[in-house]
Fold:
Amino acid sequence: MSSEQEQQVQTVRRALVGRVVSDKMDKTVTVLVERRVKHPLYGKIVIRSAKYHAHVENGVAAHGDMVEIEECRPISRTKTWRVTQVVEKARVI
Structure:
């Protein structure tokens, strides 16, 4: 491949939005991502969820925050996501 072709190859990184459910690890948060899908037979809207471990620098994301995560290279055995931005901070009651 020439250098021009290498520059044109762009990797598409998936981005998800979810809520931080745990920030007890060092430089890692657990993000719960919920998605709504229609049941194939009954047609009811069902909520499916998945948890992802995401890398976060400087502790910018805390428990309860809504964050955006994007796919990245494997950082550890379970971490292949990184926090890109905090969409909404958790409200303190």
About this structure: The CA atoms of residues 11 and 92 lie 38 Å apart. The chain has one domain: 11-88.
